[in-house]
Design a protein that fits this description.
mainly beta, 18-stranded mixed sheet, twelve-stranded mixed sheet, 4 helices, 36 strands
Length: about 500
């Protein structure tokens, strides 16, 4: 027998109470506060599909709502102070009646498949300190009424379908706000330059993965407690407020993939002693790489790729002992690769591709045994591939394409169990392809490009064993003979 609609499971006397609340969702019911809370909870429940019957079997009239799943109450007045159903599959809209839970200090519906808009009635929850509606399908604009939440400390509306501008009123009275996350929505327009004027406690800002535009508000630099700033994947333009480079607590700056430009300030105005993540890739910054970063001794990730920098690969990078990821590619890189890079023994990806680097590949790169990605393609590197690269047993991608490398490829892949992509195309390499035999034995190779070289002989017979794994194999414009080996 099919389940009855949820409304039929509610006793008649409670339906009467619920209908009284439904007449005006913006006005709490009369009577004691517990009745108001009960009515609000039942109205919330009634608007949701509950396929796993989590609320249907637990939120029952025979039990005090203070003992219902996801609910905490105050001891003295038995009022709802916390409502958290995070991760529960509840489908439907967020009932405006939740705004009647006047004692609520924490509200979390993250990962609950909610749809529709955020009710303006949530702005009545004046005791609210924590609001998390992330990872749903909520749409429409962020209601300006949320700006009435003057006690709020954490506001997370990330990973929804929210659109429109960030209301100016939103942060106007949130003096206790410590974290705001609006990441991964469809927000657009400029951010008011005064949006952070009254948020002195703010430590975490994440507005990334939206369509926000205009300049970065200069008031960001006035946030003395700020530790995390994520504005990546937007359309911000202009220069970065210079004072942002002099913030003593800042640990993360991610401005990747915007339209920002300009040069870096001098030593006197650049001090980020706690910086761990610095991402400016995919913008229009120019000049030289900021040598002041050498003093950021906690730096772990540095991405300055895809800009208009004109500089050599800095030797001061060797002063960053905790650096794990480095990407300087897609700039006008000049000069040779410094041997000092080999001091970065914790580095996993190294990106120096699409530049104008000259000289040999330093053999000392073979000391960087944590490397999993090595991108040196599309430069003007010369000489032979160093045998020391055979020590990089964790290497997953090796890109040396479109350089001027010459000679035979040494037998360096005996330890390359993890190698999935190898790109040697567009060089002056010669000799047989026997150096590939270990890779064919391991069977992990997904993409292989050796075209536009001077390789000779026949394809190794083990190539035929890779038909189930190898998706890209480019070997044209060589001096190879014979046919394709068959699968054994």
């Amino acid at each position: 027998m099919a389940d009855l609609p949820m409304s039929f499971c509610i006793p008649i006397f409670l339906l009467a109470l619920l209908s009284a609340v439904s007449v005006s969702s913006s006005t709490p019911t009369n009577g004691n506060g517990s009745d108001t809370d009960l009515a609000a909870l039942l109205a919330f429940k009634a608007q949701l599909a509950d396929p796993h019957r989590i609320l249907a079997d637990n939120w029952t009239i025979g039990t005090s709502f203070c003992h219902w799943i996801g609910i905490s109450c105050s001891r003295r007045r038995q009022r709802v102070t916390s409502l958290s159903l995070q991760g529960m599959p509840l489908f439907g809209t967020l009932a405006p009646h939740v705004g009647n839970l006047s004692f609520l200090s924490a509200l979390s519906f993250a990962h609950t498949s909610l749809t529709g808009s955020i009710p303006i009635e949530l702005g009545r929850l004046h005791r609210l300190r924590y609001l998390n509606l992330s990872s749903n399908s909520l749409s429409s604009a962020i209601p300006a009424a949320l700006g009435n939440l003057t006690r709020i400390e954490i506001l997370d509306l990330s990973r929804n379908h929210l659109s429109g501008q960030i209301p100016l009123e939103l942060l106007l009275h949130m003096q206790n706000l410590r974290k705001i996350n609006l990441n991964a929505n469809y927000l657009s327009g400029h951010i008011s330059p005064y949006v952070f004027n009254n948020t002195p406690s703010l430590a975490y800002i994440s507005f990334g993965n939206n369509s926000l535009s205009g300049p970065i508000p200069h008031t960001v630099a006035s946030l003395s407690m700020l530790e995390i700033l994520n504005l990546q994947l937007n359309q911000f333009s202009g220069i970065v407020p210079q004072a942002m480079y002099n913030m003593s607590r800042l640990q993360v700056i991610s401005l990747i993939l915007n339209k920002l430009n300009g040069m870096f300030p001098s030593n006197q105005t650049f001090s980020l002693p706690m910086l761990q993540f610095f991402g400016l890739g995919g913008n229009k910054f120019s000049g030289r790489f900021p040598s002041e970063l050498a003093s950021c001794r906690y730096l772990q990730v540095l991405d300055l790729s895809a800009n208009s920098f004109v500089d050599g690969v800095p030797t001061w990078l060797a002063k960053l002992p905790h650096l794990r990821k480095l990407n300087l590619g897609f700039n006008n890189l000049i000069g040779s690769i410094p041997y000092a890079l080999s001091n970065l023994t914790s580095l996993t990806p190294l990106g120096l591709e699409f530049g104008n680097l000259t000289g040999n590949i330093p053999p000392d790169l073979g000391l960087m045994k944590e490397l999993s990605y090595l991108y040196l393609g599309v430069n003007q590197l010369i000489g032979q591939i160093p045998t020391s690269l055979g020590n990089l047993s964790k290497l997953s991608y090796l890109g040396l394409a479109k350089n001027q490398l010459s000679g035979k490829v040494p037998t360096i892949f005996e330890k390359s169990i993890a190698l999935k992509k190898l790109d040697l195309a567009g060089n002056n390499l010669e000799g047989s392809l026997d150096f590939l035999s270990p890779l064919f034995k391991y069977g992990n190779l997904r993409a292989l490009a050796v075209e536009v070289n001077s390789f000779t002989g026949v394809l190794p017979s083990l190539v035929g064993n890779l038909t189930s794994q190898l998706t890209i194999f480019l070997a044209s414009d060589n001096k190879l003979i014979g046919g394709l080996p068959r699968n054994d």
